[in-house]
Fold this protein.
Amino acid sequence: MQVDDMAKRESAPATQRCSVHPAFLYNHVFPLRDHCVLRAKRFPGRELGLGERLRSMTAASFFPRWLPRHEASLLLAILIVVCLTAWLDAGQNYIQQPQASAVNLVRTTTRLGLIALGAAVVIIAGGIDLSTGSVMAFSGTMAAVILLWAEPQAMLNNQPLSLWAMMLAVSGALLSGFFVGSLHAWLITAVGLPPFVATLGTLVGLRSLARALCEAVTAEYLGGISTQISVPDVRFRYLATSVWIPVVLLVGISFGLWVLLSKTVTGRHLYALGGNEQAARISGIDTQRLKWLAYVISALLSSLAGVLMVCEVSTAQPESLARGYELNAIAAAVVGGCSLQGGIGTVTGTLLGAVFLRVVIDGVANVIKSGADVYEGLIVGVLVVCAVTLTKTGESAVPRRLLRGGLGWVTILNLTLILAALMALIGVRLVGEKSQLETWQLTAWAAAGGFAGLILIRQNWPAKRKRLAVVIWAISIVGILLAADWGYPRMQRNAAIRFARKVGGEITRGKDGIIVSFRDTVLTDDQWSGFAPKLSFFPDLAEIQLQHTQVTNRSLEALGRLRRKPLGIRTLDLTGTAATPAGVRQHLRDFPHLKTLP
């Protein structure tokens, strides 16, 4: 049987040969097929047992075709992130403004989805494209330059642009992407440059070229050198702001790429190229043509995303347009299941990876509010490292000890410090509204829990024992956090009540909330500075009475430094104290609804 099959394959044209190396077929696939046929003949009336069926099934057939395991995990992760964002967001944007939040998320996801699909095709083919952001900036600038060249008066006077000018601009931008992709393919196939070097050169060069082009054209048509071109036309902006147009483009392109990769010989050859280029070449596959196709698809999709981005922001500014988007594209593809070694990846997984990445970034922006863009690169980098790590460990047939030896101990210390820093920088801002623990407590909890988890990973235990240990570890760290979050505030409130009684004051509950009274006591600034932080643990604090005490503006400063502001406080009585109105205005400006007496 094997001899006949080999003869048929050798006589077939090169374009019809299988994309997999023949040795793999004859050593693995055909023996497995023959074994299944012989077993069926030997036991014609008996069904295979569960263990036999599992051993005979591949990973792809074990899960439903319409919902592979990785895609199902991404869907679950997206739902979890959305629920956490809705819970942690103090503004409740997902609940109060669901339509606006969905529109914003869809608009940003479609743009990321386009460039992620291009990056996925290149990665599947065994390459890498670092120029995505620069191609977006260059193509978007080309579209604006063509509009300024075609209708300078309309651009100068903010008049409506003609349809033919907009079509010409979009076509020119896509054509520039086609040429950039072809340049990448030539540098890689003909010159022999590694994909990393070839695309790194255009990453640096295209953005500078776009700026030079922008300055030259503006000097010619606007009478002065400018590094940006404004495109205020409403119809041109509608290409991006309509939302439905980018969505239709993304759906159509995704379906086309799915058909290409899953249902055509070219798609199978792309997977074979990424899996083993030498074997693909020996099998008769035109690898140079496939590389050209992959890089052209990536550049075209980047160009289309660049045009949509210029449509949305109404400005082509090559210096800052789409900066850093190449990392986001690669991250979405890798999170979606593409292997950086090539030969592995799906369109569905890439789209879900783009959605997951945008949901995480949008969730952090909603929870942290101001300054969330500072952490975007950090989040993307962490997700990429985690995704690649999980992919590598999942591909290994033998369990790998990741933290063994002296380097393992150093890595455990390193990761523990990184986890503590992340909790101190981001985690406190994420859960600060939901937890009453201090920053150092949350940081210590994250560091201790992470250290314990890494120690578990280091252990060379049987799989069953390690799974049980991980479950116990997860329950323990969650239980410790909940217990500390429940007990620590009560301990601080009790300490505050004892202190108030010690100096002659009292803490009582009134009709509108908690009333803290130190009137006619010898309370000093030093005593108040030690007591004031405990007020953060009274969420329904309504009134503070400091009449005829020895407090000054120093006490107001201590009250204004509270990390968790008692927003419920409405009255602060300073009658007979040395505190001044200027001190109130200076230190209590974060309490807009606070009424001070006298």
